[in-house]
Structure formats: structure tokens, C-alpha cells
Task: inverse folding
């Protein structure tokens, strides 16, 4: 198993960015892209297709292989994080939310195409989602809140895709933070005020933070944005959520 590139971000308990390998941080996020040189050999059904096409239109067999490989890679990323942070521990995946066996830190995973993401939180459950695929209009129309859809219709075409993607990632990460079940319920909530704020801050000429390059490979500065949720009226299905971390260039949202 091989990562093409990986990055580690560290945050304080209030979501403020710290040094990338800060052992005293409260939250760590890692994002990595992996390669699989043997993938085409393992699936005759997709032997003549490039890797990125396998992920966009997988056969039933290829999709199953893809999922198993992604699951292995998120766990490999977790082990990589623990090694870099000098934490000796193992994942307890018997119950949700996942936790480390000895420290009892909270762990959350996500994957999309050839990308994986992992979050570790010392004190509270955390959710993370990475999304590299566009969200289809039919999915948005079926699941998104009517207010979200009305706001979406007013956006310029170049903003509509990112608006849908932000809604999806936010719902997924909140789902994982809260209970890990009933994605449809979380997709149907009204996040329009939060999404509008995210879109507003990412239009700013300078990011809220620039991350430390210490563990970065083949990536320029990644824009890191933070939203505190204390001033937002959250849907009733969401409990104990303090803030959102958005890694814009990596298409990752974490909720803590």
C-alpha cells in the first residue's frame, strides 16, 4: 500500500490551526492520495480503463474491490498518523463512534475515489468527509432541504457544484459525529446559513490560515477555514457541535 501524498493538520480544542505534528493538539486531520499499481490486474472487467475511470463508473466487482481497498487505506492512514504523532495505540472498531483502545481518542474515516481522510479527536466525537465526486442534481432534488434548493437556484453555475458538495460533506460529517445512521435525515436539514458563510469566507483573497508544510508532499498551501457554530441555530438532529473545519483545496469538512 502506497500513498502518493499525505498531509497532517493539527488543531486546538477551539479549532485553531497549530503546528502539523503538535502532540498537544486536540484534533488531528490527515488527508492522503493513494496509488494502486496492481488494481487493473486485479479486475479483468476494468483492465483497459484508467484508474480514475474505474472510480467514476465501476462494475459491481470493481466497486466491491474499491471499497475494500479504501477501507484498508484509511486504516493505513490512521497508523501513519499514530506513528508521526508518537501515539502507541490501536483502533477499536467494534462500536460507533470508533475510538482508540487505550487513549480512548475518537476516530473517524472518509474516502472518495483514490483519496482517504482520517480524523482523531482527544475529547469529543468528530466527523469528517472528503468528497471528490460531483453531487448530481437528481440527488440534490431528492434529498436537500427546500430552502437549500431555492438558494442553490440563485447561484451562478460555477458556484452550484461547490454549493452541493459543501451541503453533502457537511451532512456526512455531522452524521458521523452524531450517530453514523440515517444519512437522508441529515441531508434534509437546512444548512443554508452555514453554507452561505462558508462560500463567503472562501471568496476572501487570503485564507483564514495557511497550514504548515512539514508533512506535505506535492501540494501547495491548502486553504484552511474555520466556522464557530455558537451563533447558528442548528437543526435538532445535531447535538454538541462546536465548529467546522473546511480544507478547501482538499475538499474535506470536519465537524467537532
Result:
Amino acid at each position: 500500500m502506497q500513498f502518493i501524498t499525505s498531509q497532517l493538520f493539527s488543531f486546538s480544542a477551539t479549532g485553531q490551526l497549530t503546528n502539523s505534528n503538535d502532540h498537544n493538539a486536540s484534533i488531528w486531520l490527515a488527508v492522503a492520495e493513494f496509488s494502486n499499481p496492481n488494481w487493473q490486474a486485479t479486475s479483468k472487467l476494468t483492465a483497459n480503463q484508467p484508474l480514475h475511470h474505474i472510480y467514476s463508473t465501476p462494475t459491481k466487482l470493481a466497486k466491491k474491490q474499491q471499497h475494500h481497498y479504501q477501507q484498508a487505506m484509511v486504516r493505513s492512514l490512521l497508523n501513519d498518523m499514530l506513528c508521526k504523532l508518537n501515539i502507541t495505540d490501536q483502533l477499536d472498531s467494534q462500536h460507533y463512534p470508533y475510538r482508540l483502545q487505550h487513549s480512548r481518542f475518537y476516530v473517524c474515516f472518509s474516502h472518495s475515489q483514490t483519496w482517504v481522510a482520517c480524523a482523531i479527536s482527544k475529547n469529543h466525537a468528530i466527523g469528517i468527509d472528503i468528497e471528490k465526486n460531483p453531487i448530481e442534481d437528481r440527488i440534490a432534488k431528492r434529498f436537500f432541504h427546500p430552502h437549500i434548493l431555492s438558494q442553490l437556484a440563485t447561484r451562478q453555475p460555477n458556484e452550484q457544484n461547490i454549493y452541493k458538495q459543501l451541503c453533502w460533506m457537511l451532512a456526512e460529517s455531522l452524521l458521523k459525529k452524531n450517530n453514523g445512521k440515517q444519512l437522508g435525515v441529515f441531508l434534509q436539514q437546512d444548512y443554508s446559513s452555514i453554507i452561505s458563510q462558508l462560500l463567503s469566507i472562501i471568496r476572501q483573497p487570503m485564507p483564514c490560515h495557511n497550514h504548515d508544510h512539514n508533512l506535505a508532499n506535492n501540494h501547495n498551501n491548502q486553504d484552511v477555514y474555520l466556522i464557530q457554530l455558537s451563533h447558528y441555530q442548528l437543526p435538532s438532529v445535531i447535538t454538541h457541535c462546536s465548529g467546522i473545519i473546511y480544507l478547501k483545496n482538499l475538499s474535506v469538512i470536519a465537524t467537532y
Confidence is low (pLDDT under 50) at residues 39-56, 206-221. Residues 2-126 form one domain. Residues 210 and 221 are 6 Å apart (CA to CA). The first helix runs from residue 39 to 42.
